[in-house]
Amino acid sequence: MRDTLRETWRFFRETVVLVLxxxxxxxxxxxxxxxxxxxxLFFYLEQHGLGLIxxxxxxQVSWGLYIANFTYLVGxxxxxxxxxxxxxxxxxxPIKEIxxxxxxxAASSIIMAILFxxxxxxxxxxxxxMIPRIGSMNFPQSLLAWDVxxxxxxxxxxxxxxxxxxxxxxxxxxxxxxxxxxxILIAIPWAVGIHTVTAFLYxxxxxxxxxxxSILAPRFLASALCSGPAIMxxxxxxxxxxxxxxxxxxxxxxxxxxxxxxxxxxxxxLTAEMFKEYYSNxxxxxxxxxxxxGLHGHDQLVPLIWIGTAMNVVAFLLFLVPVTRQRISTxxxxxxxxxxxxxxxxxxxxxxxxxxxxxxxxxYEYVPNALEFMVAFGIWATGFLIFTLLxxxxxxxxxxxxxxxxFGKETISSFH
Amino acid sequence: xxxxxxTRRELLRNLSLAALAGVSFPLVxxxxxxxxxxxxxxxxxxxxxxxxxxxxxxxxxxxRKYGKKFTxxxxxxxxxxxxxxxxxxxxxxxxxxxxxxxxxxxNNSRHNPQLHWIRVIRLKKGTLINLENSEHYYDPxxxxxxxxxxxPVQCQHCENPPCVKVCPVHATWKEPDGLVVVDYNWCIGxxxxxxxxxxxGRVFNWAEPNIPPEEVNPEVHYLGNRPRMKCAVxxxxxxxxxxxxxRYPACVEACPTGSRKFGNLLDPKSEIRYVIENxxxxxxxxxxxxxxxxxxxxxx
Amino acid sequence: MGRLNLVILLFLTLLGxxxxxxxxxxxxxxxxxxxxxxxxIYPCSNCHASMEVNLKRRELKEAHDDIVLHHGETxxxxxxxxxxxxxxxxxxxxxxxxxxxxxxxxxxxCHGNVYNxxxxxxxxxxxxxxxxxxxxxxxxxxxxxxxxxxxxxxxPEPPPHRPTDKQHAK
Lengths: 416, 300, 170
What we know:
Chain A has helices spanning 2-20, 24-50, 65-78, 80-89, 93-96, 99-120, 143-170, 177-203, 216-242, 249-280, 286-292, 302-320, 322-325, 328-346, 348-351, 370-399; strands at 402-403, 411-412. By secondary structure, chain A is mostly helical. Chain C has a domain at 41-147. Chain C contains 7 helices and 2 strands, in the order ααααββααα.
């Protein structure tokens, strides 16, 4: 027992050293992120002191930039399943090696999503009211209660699996697949679950006709399966540049191909929504009109959503056509377009029209103010920093450079 | 190499100390009051003794803040009671006296943010159900304006309240007498209930409320009009502090044209039952199946 | 035969006197505050007892010239409601004389629907207690000027702050 504790402490200590040593570029990146985090924290404290009046949200549009980002990030996190399925279920070897990185990304993404909810809460000091038994969680009636459970469960899964595997690799012991494989497999429906629950959160509100549509959950999943892998493709290219990990192009192209199908589904569901709204032409078309055309002269979101939709369509075509999909430059272009396009469609293009017009017909055009942007940037920076630090430990373990040695001195070659 | 490593170790040490200081500062700077509030239980889970202590605590706090002696009632629901409200749309002239009487009676924040539990909307005659054509900010010299009708909207105290369904912490619930109430000290400020309400009945204290101390109403109910705190949700409570003593809500008393009616739906001789039986009543957004207890009616 | 008619008439009168609805109306079931008289105007008989009764329909010039009748004025004038020979009373259609504290019965003769609503407690401003036995009523005249009953338009209270008007709490 004492030995295990000593070993664990040594592992921890060595990972801290690993994290603190790096190239100039690494330091610059980390310091850049830390600076943004501090700015975000400063503005958050101002919001915490004044109350949410420091944002531009109000009774008419009571959820804004924070919840928009939350929705997008839950989708990103769910996308890790896209790697797990081919890797473990179909044993597609090129992807198998990078699954751990994908799961670490999912964990960082979920942390960001949880942080966005935390900054949006009016009374964060009362968070303990949500803990079952100790507080009074309204389970199973409240979808937010479900969301808290599934998000935290997903975070635990996506920390448990990679950390378990990495620690086994560190000790050069084979993982006990009988133990870990059930967790890996359960992560697949769980990933679908987190985004379905988040979709149901909105879906269940009869008061908001824009959200009260049955295709919300499928649409969320489709767009999630585009945005998450897109950012991972970019991240993997960065990783394979700065480290010794080999990631085959074939893996990236396979991911891009799956994304093409997901984006097709997303666009198809959008067309289905448009048909229903415009053909039936009830008064509930108001939110849709506000988003895509403008309502009674209010048309702030119109250029944004059309640019976003155009990005999605172009990206879809880039991924569909094999020539453009399998050329790194156009593939990257497609990824960037999808990241931004889906953010528009799932973030402000989803949350804000739900509140316009409000249940009594009022229209308020919400624009986040500087404080909200700074806090949002701070949270994104936090997620990226956490991911960077996790990778800083994970990559040397995967490439074999960071290994346990019985003789007390690990071989830690300088990971530039 | 050696010196570099020392620098890094020092850096690590300095950073951890800074982080520790940063984290412990809010914990240390917590006042005793804030610690007490942090641990306050859910109102429905309090024993009678705990309720008494909490009431005393808040009465003292309010006295210190506003300089008046407060009486916080915890009067429970009366038996055989289901409160219903009636509003005569043929008589409302949109003068908004109910809005401001409510704000004064219920200690609503007056500005930054301005919380109105009642919202009077103006509709063109000939339309009713499509509220998209409503005007909230009408400000003519005189009301009523020809060609328009006025409809005040407040919390409808639904029998199937969507807000109660979605609250993640049970901070809002339906009382036995049909009122939907909020425990302001339990609310975490997630605003899911505001998104869920089809009638815009709920409003949010976006900042610490601003109530002029001379206008504060010290006769309050714990679940009703006691002064709230920042980042809690509140809404019309049908003046729970009045109706459980048999008095009309403030908006009913304020209306100069007598458009507002109130009573016990379970009492066959009540005014609201007479309205429902003898007038033509309608409820807003009935297709959402929320079963509101706010009945609009017209002269039969 | 004549005696039989008398007996039947007596019987019907007794029945009528026992009719609860009728009894309710005649016996002050509605607790109302005193009528909103202008200062010093009542009792009317202070002046009118010594004045000649002029039943001619005309515009008043010597007194009460501040009253402009705007209430069915093409069909009625003052002495259709105010009892000519005793000005302290109002005159119902069947000739019955009532005091001003029961003026709702007079208004109710034409405004029957509203009268029924008022008796049930759903017409007019409510205040105080709503529980049975503690309910209070107001006379019609407390809100409606009997000579010009239609409500005048009011200046509305200010609209709520627009969301874009929001200033930060600091």
